[in-house]
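Dear colleague,

Following up on Tuesday's group meeting, I ran the structure prediction for the two-component complex that the binding team flagged. I've pasted the input sequences exactly as they went in, so you can double-check that nothing got truncated or mislabelled along the way. The structure tokens for the whole assembly follow below. Feel free to forward this to whoever is handling the docking comparison.

Inputs:
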Amino acid sequence: LLPVPARAPPQAPFRFSPRRLRCPREHELLEDGDIHRHLYLQDILVSVTQVTEKPKVSEFSCHIAGCCQVFDTLEGYEHHYNTLHRNVCSFCKRSFPSGHLLDIHILEWHDSLFQIMAEKQSMYQCLVQGCVEKFKSSKDRKDHLVTVHLYPSDFRFDRPKKAKSSTKHSKSPLLQNASMPVDIKTFEQPQVDSMEISPVENMENASQPLSSLISLPPEKHLNRSRIPSTICFGQGAARGFKSMRKKI
Amino acid sequence: MVCCLQSVIVLFVALRKARKQQQLISKRLLREDTQNGEGKAGMEIPTDPLSEQEVLQLLRDTQKGTEERKKSLSCLRQALQHKETQQKFVRLEGSMRVLIGLFTSSLADVQMEAAHCLHELSHSSDPAVAEACLPATSYLLTYLSGHSIEFTELCLYTLGNLVVESEAVRKQLLPQGIISALASCIQSPHEAVLEGLGYVLSQLLQAKEASIEIIPCVNNALLISQGIMSTLVLLLLELASMVSKAVADGLELLICPVLRCLSNLLAEEMEGCNMQVQDERLLVALFTFMQYFLNHHLFIVQECLWLLNNLTADEPFFCSAMLTLDLIPALLQLLPCSRMVALLVLTVLCNIAEKGCAYCQQLHQKAVLSSLISILTLSDAEVAGQCLELLHLLFLHWPEAAADFFTQAGLQALEQHQHHPELQERVRALMNLATQPTAASPCSLVSSAAVPSSLP
């Protein structure tokens, strides 16, 4: 390193002094780079490599026992696997979109200690990652999700655990893919009544349109529309009567 | 070909204008190579827009519990490439509710098609269409912690398009936890996911309120203490090696944000940041970039020089390295490129010269003077002014340079500017040196013994 004398102030009329430069977003020095980026975003730049074609393979089926979905691309299979088989509860076989939601489910639905502790302290954690709030009940948690995090009040992945056996509810996810009387004014979606995605849906290949649906009253606002628990659709009963959930 | 070029120029001008008005918004579209055969966004859309009745019928078809559902969804997806169809779709009551229901389906292929439909809507230039996607955002965020590469990538680009749409959208996404949801993607080993993540982040930072709402949430001191600068330097070295291997298509898009990050972090002048970057190879990387992109992407040269300024301003480490690695000639070669480049080059040279006589002596040896005389002759007032500052520093610390300057007809170059109001004082101060006898620099006796000659 070459020797450096102590820094002296500039001698008039000269004024240069070394200075680090900070460029905020709108700085003119960044203009050309920004324009280039936008040309890229709008696909004007021809030099950027194209999306490669996905290779197709001959048809193969999912290897998970009981699942009969068939695929002809690896990506299709990967997405199916991740959606239905990756985050599966080993107690009740429900699958979840993420490990985070699965963990919360196991804690709240299958951990007897949780129920005991929940009587004394706030145990229901907020679903948003990064939020540390906890609540005394799942209803309080839902209110928090709606008011603070602006989640929809019918958020699919936040259903309270039913007190009674929800055997019948495990079939209700079929509804969302069922045909239903179409009303020009509204398209009502029967909502899933539990916090999960049921694997029962892989019965799709053998299904017929379900016609025994109750026609739901049109609703203008985002209220949850619940299927009464007494409705049973008979079709696609992949499982028999389930063992009762452990009660505290 | 000509009209294609013309439309590019028109677009170019429009983008610059938009940027100056701080309204530069661009969205990204992922569209597969399906029926078109072209597969590029913005290319011809094969079908005509649908009538309202046709959209309604398609929507009904997606509600059937048969194989037809996936086909109808595919048709819908294609139809939604049209702005008019998009508008009709979102106006149909309950349509978004249905689409979101399909988007949250446990049938993977249905979900994927619905995701593509959402993506088309998010890309719309009609704000009403993009904002119609708002009810889907909580699910888009939930799915970010999933594992399907293609699906996650699609969700990310959809979010990125929505984020840039309006403040109203961001006012929903931020409380919904978009920042922490994005954090879960950083761990992904998949390039496509990381690129999508980069897209969302860059779109978030485009927001007008970013400087108030988003950026202050970023703790630069924490980043620095966790070694982010070393990571960025290593990343630049990696990128430079790719340039050498000629795998450089689109590389400037990756280099640019890293340069900006490093430069702005250095400008924070926080404790510990200088040490993390002191790696001579960084200089080699910067000059590799500048040489490679000189002819096609001058903005890279500009931004590299900005970083070089921040590296050389205070710490002598990089000033020394510039000399020992013999990078001065390469730096001088950049002078004619553009006005801004010339200003930056001269500023870097001033940074080096300011460090004292040992540095000035070496600069003199590198024939800086002849370049300065040419640039002084050709330039506008601002560039000339920076030239004068550099000459002053050189003459101050190494008077031999002054003598040399005047024998090379430097006086004539100076005279050109002697009446300019911004420059005249400084010009006259330098011209006075022509008449004075050359004084020995206070450090020249010592330094000529101590200074190592630069390596070839």
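Chain B touches chain A through 121 residues (CB under 8 Å).

Cheers,
M.
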